[in-house]
Amino acid sequence: MRAVCVLGTGLIGGSLLRAAARAGREVWGTAASEPTAAAAVADGFDVTTDTDAALARAAEADALVVVCVPLTALEAVLRRVDAVAPTCRLTDAVSVKVPVADAVAQFAPRTRFVGGHPMAGTAESGWPAGSADLFTGAAWVVAADDGLDVEVWRDVAELAWDCGSRVVPAAVDEHDVAVARISHLPHLFAAVLASVGAGEQGDDLALALSASSFADGTRVAGTRPELVLAMCEGNRGALLAAVDDALGRLGAMRGALASTGGLAATVRSGHEARMRWASTREPLEVPVDLGAPDVFAELRELGRRGDVVEPVKR
Amino acid sequence: MRAVCVLGTGLIGGSLLRAAARAGREVWGTAASEPTAAAAVADGFDVTTDTDAALARAAEADALVVVCVPLTALEAVLRRVDAVAPTCRLTDAVSVKVPVADAVAQFAPRTRFVGGHPMAGTAESGWPAGSADLFTGAAWVVAADDGLDVEVWRDVAELAWDCGSRVVPAAVDEHDVAVARISHLPHLFAAVLASVGAGEQGDDLALALSASSFADGTRVAGTRPELVLAMCEGNRGALLAAVDDALGRLGAMRGALASTGGLAATVRSGHEARMRWASTREPLEVPVDLGAPDVFAELRELGRRGDVVEPVKR
Lengths: 314, 314
What we know:
2 copies of one chain form a homodimer.
Chain A (H helix, E strand, L loop, with lengths): L3 E4 L3 H12 L4 E4 L3 H9 L4 E2 L2 H11 L2 E4 L6 H11 L4 E4 L5 H10 L4 E2 L2 E3 L20 E5 L6 H13 L3 E5 L1 H27 L6 H5 L2 H6 L7 H9 L2 H24 L4 H15 L6 E2 L8 H10 L3 E2 L5
Helix pairs in contact in A: 3-4, 4-5, 7-11
Enzyme class (chains A, B): oxidoreductase
Protein name (chains A, B): Prephenate dehydrogenase
GO molecular function (chains A, B): NAD+ binding; prephenate dehydrogenase (NAD+) activity; prephenate dehydrogenase (NADP+) activity
């Protein structure tokens, strides 16, 4: 089992450190602050604030390095990787995939990089909120673009399986488009719906009459704004396209309502889409020969079908 | 206790018939079809398809007549009211209030009309789906515009209390604006979000990655399209204003995302609105002297504060 070096020990990195250790892996990590490092050490983990030392050990052990820092701290960390472990096996657990791939190409271009995104989280953050169970049953997206390093691809998938996740392969741009649609846009819709529904201060009639349609439609507007902003603003390009798709549909609906008064096209299409979502089958575990030519095209097709890669037996 | 004549015995009218009977009231009703009338009679209720006979009895008994037919059947029923019981005490349980008030002014102008809207329902419809408990704990909006008949206002409020509901007074236009914002717009947002999220047939990656933000944001898109259309299309004017408010906010958000990339204004305003909703206090039961001058202005203010009228002791 390959050793793992986790850069950043917040909710995601801290959970990964715990999960990898529980799976029997040799694992160490870095923290941005002394108190976080001390808390992790007190919990029995090998965590330091000395990023260069952690990376030197990773280069020596040929470990898989996992970047778990916020998007805003990415460049600084990648510069250290390039300086200390320039050709290491590298992955990440940052939400958006195109901006991370671009940053790696710019600041750590010699690394063997395969991006990742475990679709897991809680409302909490920081080392204390972490849990070895965070990834259990979650989808873990692994980048599947042509030209990636198949050996590192397997390293990342094995780490995901060790953490109890399902491996969903996807092209990085398709991943970013998908999360814009099913995660980032819902957060923006919830925010706008909450603002329209609440209306003016001092007039609480609408809120007094609100029922489950409003409560459900605005639930994620309760998320801490900082988390929503980091997530949505980091996926600007794909999110703009999703917003424009939504605005086009809303504009057509507005036109129909104003002219004929009819909403059937909007309502029926939305109903069909929701029914399609509700009838989404359980993902199939599909065996994939990672040595095959065109393996990444096969993996991408598998992800588009909503399926996952069958864990490889050791 | 005033007798009650219920016109229409679907989910709402059928539940009202049961609840009024349980409260000890003399109550009878009409059904649109023989099978429905037969089912209600078999359940022990006094229901006929002869609307004129039911209305003649209402005129004779000075009963409160409650219109519980769909918006599309409203004109025909009101014409019978005008022919047979032209000055009766009249209320309704149709969702939108301005279109109903307009129809009454046109087709049954001599009635003593005070509109109502019990905020209750289920996914089911028809007589068999009805229940005497449907209105328990629900908000029952009672129109509170200047110039209404105070005596009939009390009749409607007493019926709502007998059914276990809280009485929320509101001007009819303010009611329609409120439900457009907190009920009708959420249904349209859910439909558009479902359509954008599901994307093209044959690409299920986005659906496979969807989590609770998408599930919650699209839940009401699962409602039967006919119900959503009847509800939303009947409230065209107020809904257009709510849609335009939402489009304005989404457009501003789109502009900020495209220019500076910043979403803080949208996300923070939505978060504040959701927090305001979450902190909405329990409504106060406020005693109101229905004999006071300007009583309807007082009632409207009470509703805008999110409060309810204290049930009057008999």
